[in-house]
Amino acid sequence: MKSNLYILSKSALLRPIRLKGLLRFEFLIICFLLALCSRVSAQTSTQTSTQTSAPSQHKSSATVSLEDLTWPELVEKIKDGFTTVIVPTGGTEQGGPHMALGKHNFIVQHSALRIAVDVKHVLVTPLIPFVPEGEFDKPSGNFLYPGTINISEDTFAKTLIDVCTSLNSSGFKLIVLMADHGQSMPIQELVAQNLTQAWKPMGVRVVNLSAYYDARLEAAVLKRAGIAQGDWGDHAGVADTSELWFVRPQALRISQLKTDKVQGYQDAGASGKPELSSAELGREMMDLRVKAGVQQLNAFIKDVN
Predict the structure, then answer these.
(1) In contact, 205 and 196? CB cutoff 8 Å
(2) Which of 30, 25, 28 lies closest to 13 in space, CA to CA?
(3) Contact call for residues 199 and 214 (beta carbons, < 8 A)
(4) CATH homologous superfamily for 62-304?
(5) How far apart (Å, rounded) are the C-alpha atoms in residues 116 and 250?
(6) Of the listed ranges 134-138, 159-163, 212-216, the one predicted with least confidence
(7) How far apart are CA 182 and CA 132, in angstroms?
(8) Rounded CA separation 294/300 (Å)
(9) What are the sequence ranges of the domains in the chain?
(10) What are 271-286's pLDDT values in tens digits?
(11) Adjacent-strand bridge partners of 13
(12) 61 versus 274: which is more confidently predicted?
């Protein structure tokens, strides 16, 4: 997979800028200027629209979901201290015959909303449902199965940059990337580091909520349950299945938990013994992961303030 990540401006595709290794001066300047122009434009538009077409009276909604707000309600929220926003990234991929393709999306959206409510003064954007799943020219892993939707690392990084730039222009000070998929983590970390440095003069920070995606949390629950490590599985196994069972049981096919072969495929796309899963195990895992995310996000907010 390409090691260069690309940045798309409104007018043209800029020359490749390497994000791995040393930061380039051009990247920092471009990100700073794009964000500054976007913010000035947004502020000007808001002022003009407020004078001409804004509702005369409205109350800020109690929701933490950004997409449920009107723009005047969002302005009000930010004025009231909601300057932190979570950007959940999921993934649409195969999870064996027993798990719906949206497993990552269901789990990360559930967790992001819980974390926002627990931390307070935090909003959540609509989730990004497509993430890198491997090479297009040499499919492997999940990309060998129908239903897995793949995007390149470049496209994913570019999407994150554009989303973060939009949130910067809206007035958010802390933008939190939150993944539920392993291949997303290093890209989110790179984007967060680069944008934070680029926007430092503006007092805007982008972070990756890595504590939420810590496999040791799930392992601790499985060990306490007495499940042999050889039965855990590393994809669509006991942990994944239990978490989905707790978050969205209707997305689970209980009758298919023991299916290990599908005609025409090398295997069923799952590992371990998912039949050992339970909603209770999933609840314990999700509680630990949400708690870890809350603790890390509180620490990030403290650093910003």
Answers:
(1) yes
(2) 30
(3) no
(4) Creatininase (3.40.50.10310)
(5) 24
(6) 134-138
(7) 9
(8) 10
(9) 62-304
(10) 999 999 999 999 999 9
(11) 8
(12) 274
Q: Mind listing the pLDDT tens digit for each residue in 70-107? A: 999 999 999 999 999 999 999 999 999 999 999 999 99
pLDDT in the model for residue 29:
52
| Amino acid in the structure at residue 9 | S
List CB contacts of 233: < 8 A, sequence separation 6 or more. 239, 240, 270, 271, 272, 273, 274
CA-to-CA distance for 28 and 31, rounded, in angstroms? 5
Say whether 208 sits in a helix, a strand or coil. strand
Element (H, E) at 175: strand 174-179
Tell me the three state secondary structure of residue 253. coil
- Residue 261 banded pLDDT, cuts 50, 70, 90: confident
Residue reference for tokens 């209707």: 250
| Nearest CA among 122, 95, 90, 124 for reference residue 107 | 90
267 in Cβ contact with 261 (< 8 Å):
yes
CA distance 277 to 288: 17
Rounded Cα distance, 301 and 113, in Å: 17
Q: Taking the CA of residue 220 as centre, how many other CA atoms within 13 Å lie in the half-sphere pointing to its CB? A: 10
What does the block give as tokens for 305? 């303030």
- Reading the block at residue 242, the tokens are 């239990």
**Both structure tokens of 263:** 């005609």
